[in-house]
Amino acid sequence: MIIDDIEEDFGGIDTAVAAHVERALADYLAGRQAGMAAVAPYFGSAVESLSAFVLGGGKRIRPTFAWWAWRGAGGAGDGEQARAVLRAVSALELIQACALVHDDLMDASAVRRGKPTVHVEFAARHRERGWLGAPERFGAAAAILLGDLALAWADDMYVGAGLPADRRDAALPPWQAMRAEMLAGQYLDVLTQAKGDESAEAALSVARMKTAAYTVERPLHMGAALAGAPEQVVGALRAFGADIGLAFQLRDDLLGMYGDTDVTGKPAGDDLREGKRTLLMSVGTRRADAAGRDTDARVLRAALGDEDLDSATVERVRDLLVDLGAVAEVEHRMDELTDTAMTALASVDLAEPAGAVLADLAITATRRTS
User: Fold this and answer.
1) Helices 118-129 and 92-107 sit at what angle, rounded to 10 degrees?
2) 77-108, pLDDT tens digit by residue?
3) By C-alpha distance, which of 233, 60, 248, 70 is closest to 163?
4) Which residues does UniProt call coiled coil (predicted)?
5) Which domains are assigned to the chain?
6) At what angle do helices 172-195 and 135-159 cross, to 10 degrees?
7) What residues does 115 pair with on adjacent strands?
8) Which of 199, 204, 252 has the alpha carbon at shortest distance from 369?
9) What is the pTM of this model?
10) Using an 8 Å Cβ cutoff, are 337 and 290 in contact?
């Protein structure tokens, strides 16, 4: 089924943005997969794995924020222009796929959304078929290439979405900035881990660059630019997105420590094993040091980057972070960020129902779920 027919299944785009994004992605990937199979059949199964990864989960947060920024800045909710905008913002999910595939490889993560990560999947394929060389190296190479392909196809999907040339070009600056910021944030993440930087400033910088910018702020910027919004509206939406995006990452950090594995799709404590210098851990070690709790501080520091961390130690770290007040401090920071974000959102008049929907999206993205 082509994208023009989706209203028959889901109603207007406003009523089910994520479902429409899903269909747009499925149609686009099916076409690219068929084209690739015709010229490089040996690559077909690899491309199939990428398609399955993109379509295998995710809440489609990024295109949803972009869509409602476009609607709020005056974009109409139906018609061919709306379908073109939908295709354009759906390309954000391919950037997300690139980030996740590469991030899992860099973090040596084994599970994503309850399934083997891409590099693990391809290493297993290598072993099962008795191919030559090291399975892990093959898996890493496949993940790098498929992540790169997702990024290339994101550009192709955006450029080929059918937007008027002036609207497409108007949204290029946030699109281009978002790609670079996402990569810079990933580098900052591994750099912070390599340096062992425990500061709150470093943790917040990683969260802003790696998640806040390309998850909320730039998608909002992109949607507003597609609608030709004035600078005042763009600035307010970006301020709203920067703070909500940061609160969203802080919530994700808490879920990584305390969330239900069946919900998060990743084992509890993975951030510890990967050595993630989150704000939660920064606050915890700072508070332990300030209180003279040297043994507790050593437990927290020793857990970071310990690939063999057992469940009992994870539980001890979790209890310590609550007892030290680190969880409460991070929750308070999220509340402050949400308040300032809502103030920014309320400072401009948006076409309804966009303002109310964006406020609801912000609350949903940052609410306590554990």
Assistant:
1) 60
2) 789 999 999 999 999 999 999 999 999 999 99
3) 70
4) none
5) 3-366 (1.10.600.10)
6) 160
7) 112
8) 252
9) 0.93
10) no
